[in-house]
Specification:
The chain is built from one helix and 27 strands. It has about 400 residues and is mainly β. The chain starts with a strand and ends with a strand.
Length: about 400
């Protein structure tokens, strides 16, 4: 059986306590494991070098420093950065107040490497908060993942009001409830940003975020390597009767690709099986290797690509035209599927068709099909166009009005 390895890049957990999954590898897709509690780094007090100590570290002694942090307001993106002489690839625990996240040491210049960790301040309590960055040792899969002897501390002021709750909530989902993600746009490898959205769910509702390559979702048994993320967080207070969902993303460990983001309500708890189930919101975005604003071209034949033309919103019963260009050869078969944006059931699409690539021009070959929308419910839907032989997928969003 073919398998694609999914590398969970910068996996993290948002919660009342610092609960973290470290970077690891799983085989296949949608593997959920209990989140593992990590000893609070505030209890580790050996080998400490404070960020406030500005003396030059001795070359033979490992160190971590934290760059100055400016004041923030709840809901802002906080990016914690600093330097270290620990080797590239070393795992760090970045704890901000009650929130803990993993970061990875990156290559720097000379003997000085660096790290950077995005923090969503929506779930933090305002006040003077401590930041602690600690070297982590061991392997979570072997049960010996723990803080090491090197750490740094700093503090900053978080303004605003507390937007989360001290006690997680698992509400009863009704037919009128929703989660809607805002458009994300193209991003470059290394970008750090917030994915945000709105929801009718109450503050404190526990949700699970997943960021996975679209191609891996449509064909979980393909070969090769893919990168993704999974995390849990809470619904926080929004505007009026609408609340907010948000997730801090670090694309440093993610490969250039098109990614499908889902945020779902969950079942289970942090000490047992914890997985998404129920209400889901979703969005699509690209991670590209160049500067933000550039994109893959149909003329770039080094990487197979399927490029769907913009899809207009339709009224139920109107024809849905799906067309686009590709650098795959004439005769390649594409599977066209339509699923609700709130669904993760890719094996049972609402609409489906099989088409073949036809000859185009020097700008690429072509594909096109028209689907009947009779019976499609109102709301947002996702179009997936996939070539199984090439393990490549294109996708687009549209609304049924």
């Amino acid at each position: 059986m073919k398998h694609k390895t999914l590398i969970m890049g910068s996996m993290l957990a948002v919660g009342i306590v610092a609960v973290v999954l470290c970077v690891g590898m799983v085989t296949g897709y949608s593997v959920f494991k209990p989140l593992t509690a990590v000893t609070p780094v505030s209890n580790v007090n050996t080998g400490v070098q404070s960020a406030a100590m500005k003396s030059t570290p001795v070359d033979t002694l490992p160190y971590i420093t934290i760059d100055p942090v400016t004041d923030k307001t709840t809901g802002d993106l906080l990016i914690v950065t600093g330097s270290t002489n620990l080797p590239a690839g070393t795992q760090l625990m970045v704890q901000t107040g009650s929130f803990g996240e993993n970061a990875m040491v990156r290559n720097g210049t000379g003997d000085v490497n660096h790290y950077s960790s995005p923090i969503d301040t929506s779930i933090l309590k305002p006040g003077t908060l401590n930041i602690t960055v600690t070297q982590m040792t061991g392997d979570p899969a072997k049960g010996n993942y723990k803080p090491g002897n090197v750490k740094a501390t700093a503090s900053f002021t978080l303004k605003g009001t507390f937007l989360a709750t001290d006690t997680p909530v698992q509400p009863t989902i009704t037919a009128s409830d929703y989660i809607r993600l805002n458009a994300i746009g193209d991003r470059s490898v290394g970008d750090q940003f917030l994915i945000t959205g709105t929801t009718s769910l109450p503050v404190g509702t526990v949700v699970i975020w997943q960021v996975n390559p679209t191609s891996l979702i449509t064909d979980p048994n393909q070969t090769g390597t893919a990168t993704g993320m999974m995390a849990n967080s809470q619904v926080t207070k929004g505007e009026g009767n609408t609340n907010r969902v948000s997730f801090a993303v670090d694309t440093y460990a993610l490969q250039p690709d098109q990614y499908f983001v889902t945020v779902s309500t969950s079942i289970g708890n942090l000490s047992q099986e914890f997985k998404p189930e129920g209400l889901t919101g979703s969005a699509l975005f690209n991670i590209i290797s160049g500067a933000t604003g550039s994109s893959r071209s149909v003329n770039d034949t080094s990487v197979p690509g399927i490029f769907i033309n913009p899809v207009s919103d339709v009224t139920t019963g109107d024809p849905l035209v799906v067309s686009g260009t590709t650098n795959l050869p004439v005769g390649t078969e594409f599977k066209v599927s339509v699923i609700p944006a709130s669904s993760t059931d890719y094996n049972h699409p609402e609409l489906a068709a099989t088409i073949s690539v036809i000859k185009g021009s020097t700008t690429g070959n072509l594909f096109s099909t028209t689907l009947a929308t009779n019976g499609l419910p109102q709301g947002q839907h996702i179009i997936l166009v996939s070539a199984e032989d090439a393990s490549v997928t294109g996708s687009a969003l549209f609304n049924v009005e």
